[in-house]
Predict the 3D structure of the following.
Amino acid sequence: MAKRPGGVTIVAVIVWIQGFLSALGGALLMIGANTPNGNLQGMNVVGLVSLILGIITIIVGVGLLRGSSVARVLTTIVLVLSIASAVYAMVTTGNVATQIISMLLAVIGLILLYTKAASDYFRSA
């Protein structure tokens, strides 16, 4: 197996952080929806979905570290959707600066996942 490139590790750590924040947000939504003042119908479902997606995202991050091609493809799909979402948000909300940063981070993630060293790493796993 080829040595894991630093770029893959960076992307995996970012994926872990994103997954953790998603899971935490989902858990907090579910807790907030179950308080006496929690009149937020449907927040349990949204919270549960966010929690599950966060856990899946963390698992995908582990897969990246292990050289899983499936994890690489899933991360690629999420990053491309992030770019599309940022473009849509720029057009509809006019919030350009934040969306440009979001797009740049996604593009950097894609570049790091598809360098020659990263490709060799995923191919050798």
